[in-house]
Amino acid sequence: MIKRCEKLAFMKVGSDSVYTRMTGFTELSVSKNPKEYSRKYIDEDMERSAVVGYSPSMTYKLDLDPSDSVHEVFANIADHELTGNDAVKSVAIVDISSLDSSGKAKAIVRDFTIIPSSEGDDSDTYTAGGSMKAAGEITFGMATTTDEWQTITFTAGE
After folding, report:
1. Which run of H or of E encompasses 75?
2. What is the mean pLDDT of residues 59-78?
3. How far is Cα 43 from Cα 78, in angstroms, rounded to an integer?
4. pLDDT tens sequence across 91-141
C-alpha cells in the first residue's frame, strides 16, 4: 500500500530547473476526467464506450503561509487575477515509495493552469482553494533530491 504522504507534489517557482515542495496543503486530489466516446450499435444490446482523451485536474486547498514560495505563487495569481500563461505553473508529482538504490524516484511533470476559487473560508487560519487544470502534456521521468525531498530536480524519460 502506498501512503498518501509518499506522493509528494512540487512546483517550479523560479526560472531554474528546481521544483519546490508543496507543503501546507490540506487537499490536493487528482481527477483524470476521461473523455469518452459512446456508441450503440443496432445489432447489440449494450452500448460501447472508449476513452478518447483526458482532461486532468487537481483540486487544492491550503493554509496560506506568506513565507512559503509556493503559497506566494497561488496568492499572487489570485490577488492579481492573473490570466493566460501568467497563471500556468509546472507541477511534479513524485512517488517516493518507488525510490531506488541510486536515490531516484518515479515522477511525472505537467503544466497546470491555476484557477483560484475561494479564500478565507476557515475561521482559524486563512485558506485558499481552487483547481489546477492541465495545460500541457504529461512528461514521465525521475526525480532526485539533495535536501531530503524539500526540492527536486526532474530528469525526463529515465
Report:
1. helix 69-79
2. 96
3. 53
4. 999 999 999 999 999 999 999 999 999 998 888 999 999 999 999 999 999
In angstroms, the CA 88 to CA 92 distance is: 13
Angle at 104 between CA 138 and CA 72, to 5 degrees: 60
As given in the structure block, the three cell numbers for residue 34 are 476521461
Cβ-based neighbours of 83, under 8 Å, separated by 6 or more: none
- Of all helices (H) and strands (E), which one includes residue 152? strand 151-156
How far apart are the C-alpha atoms of 108 and 154, rounded to whole Å? 9
Q: Where in 2-145 does DSSP place strands (E)?
A: 7-11, 18-21, 25-31, 34-40, 47-54, 57-63, 88-95, 105-119, 127-134, 139-144
Do the Cβ atoms of 31 and 56 come closer than 8 Å?
yes
Q: What is the pLDDT of residue 12?
A: 97
Cell of 87: 497563471
Grid coordinates given for 110: 505537467
SS3 85: helix
Which of 157, 155, 153, 131 lies closest to 21, judged by CA? 153
